[in-house]
Specification:
about 600 residues, alpha/beta, Rossmann fold, 4 domains, five-stranded parallel beta sheet, 25 helices
Length: about 600
């Protein structure tokens, strides 16, 4: 076995998802492999040698001498090269090292020329991942970042982005942002919007949502008001215009630092342009299949940031339109909601089954599931009532399944079937790429699942160890029977799957990644807005006179991050005990202002 194959095998045991990415990589001609005077291999890129051509180990000793980690910090090294500086740190007894390398091709050359075995017990490699993703999935709070300078010369833009992202993520971890989330009126992206709000609040931010779903019934009623298609379109357009005005009004009132809209939120181009007057970044998370819903072609380039759950092909579509606002951000779970449950005996009887599926009756599912009827099976979801064949196994009369019920289903089934939807395939989509929310949600519940093969699945799970995939219905039937017969293996896979999503794939991880990516560009502006707001108290103290009774009273609010007159009135109203003269005066003034507005 050659060195590359041996290294790849070792890497697969430690970092299997990275090993699978490397399998498709190759070393381009622009990476030259030279030999130092002592015979050691040294990579050269763009006329830059990444280590000394005289004695790379001695050069590495100097790097290690300059490394002075603070107690309680984790060494994070930017730039791998061929790892001489990393080996030297290991010789010095440094442990738990995170290495960030932006080039997958260079990492491939590293595996071809350097024995990786000494690195693996204590080194984690982050290779060719966006800086914001590296931060979100590798607890950046205790990083002690050190740069391999030759590596910075060949990929300085990446390093700059990483450093800005780290600064932004740390700042946002200590300072509260105001974030406005614009929900869709209805649809599959609505739960994601709710989970975004929950995650952002868990991260400590001040979050307000535009609850467009409250108007879903009115929107539906308008469409049913007439059977004339032309009139329906006119009414729908007027309704959407009204929704847009409502969003603009709520944004103007809330004064957010960031606006985040979810897929199918009622934001047209005109609304986006009006929101720009607030001078804050506007992001959009398209949590849909870009091939099925094509409205992104009309609005994609108008957002400051466009996040999507599909990567390569969708990214190429964006680039072909000369839009540079695309960022790949997969779905995730919400551990506050999706979690292991202790169900009652009655609930077990209702939800338990050998094989469960929760989802709508898409064409490929309707075509595939008749071949699974020999198993103890339950189906939950809408659209199935139209097919008599499924009548005996259809649950809840085919009504929509609540989020609470979904969690109970995932907890109760021996095997959760997860077949991604398709409107035209007979079974599995051979070009399937994105990973649906159900994948992460089942895992978060400690549920065992069988999921159809997806090209992006291996980037998030160790397929075969943390999750089990099937390629077609015959493969699915075989694996259903196998895992029904092997409970211990089911439990082991489910435990590993849950551990992985809690470590890397929660909605909090996605929001940290999103914010780090956005505020790498806008941190200074956000700081300026925050400082302007925090200086309001000092301004009023100065106007009242620092030594005056009112000035001394106002000083008690100097540490408030968000100071406003109405906020101060609310705080006084909530306090107990005797009011001071200033407090009485302020309350009376507040009442006068309130009555003036009513008039």
């Amino acid at each position: 076995m050659d060195m590359y194959s041996r290294n790849l095998e070792l890497l697969a045991r430690r970092q299997p998802t990275l090993a699978k990415r490397v399998e498709g990589a190759s070393v381009p001609d622009c990476i030259q492999i030279l030999r130092a005077k002592n015979g050691k291999p040294v990579p050269k890129i763009s006329n830059i040698t990444l280590h000394s051509l005289y004695h790379p180990e001695k050069e590495a000793q100097k790097f290690a001498e300059n490394f002075n980690p603070e107690e309680g910090t984790r060494p994070a090294i930017y730039g791998l090269g061929f790892g001489y500086h990393i080996r030297e740190l290991l010789h010095e007894g440094v442990e738990d090292i995170l290495v960030v390398e932006p080039s997958l091709e260079l990492f491939c050359a590293f595996l071809q020329n350097v024995d990786i075995k000494p690195f693996l017990p204590t080194v984690k490699f982050c290779v060719a991942e966006p800086p914001a993703r590296v931060l979100a999935r590798n607890d950046f709070a205790d990083w002690n970042l050190m740069t391999h300078k030759p590596s910075a010369q060949i990929s300085g833009n990446y390093l700059e982005r990483l450093e800005k992202g780290l600064e932004a993520a740390r700042y946002l971890g200590e300072n509260k942002m105001k974030i406005l989330v614009v929900n869709p009126i209805y649809g599959g992206s609505l739960p994601t919007a709710h989970f975004c709000v929950r995650a952002l609040k868990n991260l400590g931010h001040d979050v307000e949502s535009v609850d467009c779903e409250n108007f879903a019934e009115g929107f539906s009623s308008l469409n049913n008001a007439t059977r004339n298609k032309g009139d329906q379109q006119v009414l729908s357009a007027k309704f959407m215009n009204l929704m847009g005005e409502m969003i603009v009004a709520q944004a103007a009132d809330f004064k957010p630092d960031l606006i985040l809209a979810l897929a199918q939120a009622p934001l047209g181009i005109e609304v986006i342009q009006k929101l720009r007057s607030l001078n804050v970044p506007i992001g959009f998370w398209f949590v849909e299949d870009f091939r099925s819903l094509e409205y992104w072609k009309d609005i994609g380039g108008h957002y400051d940031y466009f996040f999507a759950i599909q990567d390569k092909e969708f990214s190429s579509e964006f680039q072909s339109r000369e839009w540079n606002n695309f960022y790949y951000l997969p779905q995730a779970c919400c551990p506050d909601v999706q979690k292991p449950l202790a169900l009652s005996e009655e609930e077990r009887g209702q939800y338990e089954a050998d094989l469960s599926f929760m989802g709508a009756a898409y064409y490929n599912r309707v075509q595939s599931f008749p071949r699974l009827m020999d198993f103890d099976c339950k189906i939950w979801g809408t659209g199935w009532e139209k097919y008599p064949l499924f009548k005996q196994i259809l649950q809840n009369n085919g009504e929509r399944t609540s989020e609470e019920e979904c969690v109970k289903i995932y907890n109760s089934a021996k095997i959760n079937l997860n077949l991604h939807s398709s409107s035209f395939h007979e079974g599995c989509n051979p070009q399937g790429d994105f990973v649906n929310p159900r994948t992460f949600e089942i895992a978060a519940c400690s549920g065992f699942q069988l999921v159809d093969e997806r090209s992006e699945l291996a980037d998030m799970f160790d397929v075969g160890e943390e999750i089990i995939a099937f390629k077609d219905v015959e493969d699915l039937k075989s694996k259903i029977q196998y895992y029904l017969d092997h409970q211990e293996e089911r439990d082991q896979v489910a435990a590993k799957s849950r551990a992985r999503v809690l470590r890397e794939h929660t909605m909090e991880h996605r929001m940290v990644e999103m914010l780090a990516h956005i505020f790498s560009d806008h941190l200074e502006r956000f700081k300026a807005r925050s400082e302007a707001g925090s200086g309001a108290v000092e301004t009023f103290v100065e106007l009242a006179g620092p030594d005056s009774e009112l000035g001394r009273y106002l000083k008690k609010y100097e540490n408030e991050k968000e100071f406003s007159f109405h906020g101060m009135i609310d705080k006084i109203s909530e306090e107990e005990g005797k009011l001071s003269g200033n407090e009485l005066l302020l309350l009376m003034l507040g009442q006068v202002i309130k009555e003036g507005k009513q008039e």
